[in-house]
Amino acid sequence: MLSLGLRTPVEVARLLGERIVELRLTHNWKRETLATRAGVSLATLRRLETSGQASLDHLLRVALTLGCLDQFEQLFQPPPARSFAELDQQKVARRRKRGTT
């Protein structure tokens, strides 16, 4: 997997759009085919592929259709615990409902 390094959100969005195009073409699908299968409009898919801009719902639908939905489960995961004490702290942190500041 390529490291995204220090890219801006706009650059990451465009990169995601390019990857969606690559995956769509790997399936040998037209834009219309992917849009229909994902349940999004053709305009939405076109915008997603060219700029990476779309609602989270639409992005997840396209990811599901392309077989990539499981990759989203890895986002925003806490770092792995390096000790039992850190593991206990992570359990406590998961129960919190609000921040302190």
Please provide a written account of the structure.
The chain has 101 residues and is mainly α. The chain has a domain at 9-76: 434 Repressor (Amino-terminal Domain), CATH 1.10.260.40. Helix content is 57%, strand content 0%. It is built from five helices and no strands. It has helices spanning 9-26, 31-38, 42-51, 56-65, 84-95. Helix 1 (9-26) crosses helix 3, helix 2 (31-38) packs across helix 3 (42-51) and helix 2 crosses helix 4. The radius of gyration is 18 Å and the shape is elongated. The termini are far apart.
- Name given to the CATH architecture of the domain at 9-76: Orthogonal Bundle
Question: What gross morphology would you assign?
Answer: elongated
Mean pLDDT comes to 88
Low-pLDDT stretches are none
Count helical runs.
5
What portion of residues is helical?
55-70%
Radius of gyration: 18 Å
Largest sheet: none
Separation of termini? 36 Å
Which class best fits the helix and strand makeup?
mainly alpha
How much of the sequence is in beta strands?
under 5%
Order of helices and strands: HHHHH
The named CATH superfamily of the domain at 9-76: lambda repressor-like DNA-binding domains
- What is the number of E strands? 0
Main CATH class of the domain at 9-76: Mainly Alpha
CATH topology of the domain at 9-76: 434 Repressor (Amino-terminal Domain)
What characteristics describe this protein?
101 residues, mainly alpha, 434 Repressor (Amino-terminal Domain), 57% helix, elongated
What's a quick, concise take on this entry?
The chain has 101 residues and is mostly helical.
